[in-house]
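User: Show me sequence and structure for the first protein, then do the same for the second.

Assistant: Starting with the first protein.
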Amino acid sequence: MNTHAFEKAHQTKLSRQKSKIILFIAIIAAILFVAGYLLSEIVFVIKHVEINELSIYDKNDILNDIGQVEGSSLFFTSFADKKEELKSKYPYITDIKVKRILPGTVSFNVVEDSGSLSINVGSELFLLTKELRVISLLSESLESEKLLGGNVRRINLVTGKVSRCVTGEILEFSEAYITEAVADIYSALVDCGISDRISYIDLTNKFYIKLGYDDRFTIQMGDWKNAVDKVRMFIKVSSELNEDSTGTIDVSATREAIVSLDDF
């Protein structure tokens, strides 16, 4: 056999071996695919649906709206559309996380938030999380408000500098300082334990920020720097006044307060 014929025979042998290898791999891949499909559709199917305890909504209502999913594939069943439907129907649901647990459980972790803050944009009142995420219009959440007994106290943000307000997104302001100021002031109020007694934060002027306290006092903070120290100063000074005192307490200087009480 000459050299050319030998090389040709060798190439033909290699080609056959490659074809066998490719066929073998294809068969193994097909077996694995069929096995995976059978496991997901027959073995790993949804048998149980769980949901965390809720404080606002009835979890049985949520489960009913999720619908019959038992028997569906644990891995290939998508809940993306269902999550959006639930968030649309229940305004105070701000997030839903889905966890798949072998061999056949789907767990829904529902996050509720009725809003710690509010803001007027035009003639509408929007509800906000403490992170300034827009929850909904109050007018679209009246049924949910009834579940709370109408006792929700929110801090109203006073500023005419809103540039973008879209449900589900972070509220945007035309001046960047407002986002930082709200975060610092709200954090200080929570840390000092008086966030539930503040009715509004007026951020119209960043050097002359004002807060309303229990329909009794106007707190003049100046800017939002050293917010914790200023809130603590206010608490100390107000605690030394008569319970029926009203007026203005200026803590902008941090080290001392200026008290101006109303005359009766």
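Switching to the second protein now.
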Amino acid sequence: MRKIAKKLLSALCAITLLLSSSMVALAAETESAVIPQTKETSNQGTLVDIVYFSIDGNGEVKTSEVPISTYGWLDDRITGSFSFYDLGMKNGNHYYETHMNAVAIDDVTFSYAKFSAKPKSNTEYIDSETLPKHKTFANDVIQYYYTGDGPSSPTVSVKASFTTNAGTYKIPVHTLKNPIES
């Protein structure tokens, strides 16, 4: 019971820490994303897609389109999610955000996290590396925009890697998109 309570508290804290880190990038239909000097996040968008992940003690990664059951967390070392938000139009540009949230479970602590996002029509990933301030949470946001309306069916490929006291773990590429358009 104590482990479950700890895990639920950790998940709530991860959501709270979501506001702590962000990255902004520019993307166009035919050109790669560019990272401007400013870092800000709005956290006021429409959720387009979300995928949940977990990594067990053997390093096996599981992903799910629905929240991972608390009972599945008993063997997990890290749980988290990637989410994709449409922030709408601002100053003639269409903004999007991708979020990565991860929680270390039991005695696992983060020392490094790398979150990568590749918006539709870009050839390279936008990388954001962090040294988590709170060793049990790794959170990051990458914001980008398309000049004008952008693509009619926007997608973003995301991946992450984590270095912990228990080893290095990688979440493979997953593409977030509007499920209605699939």
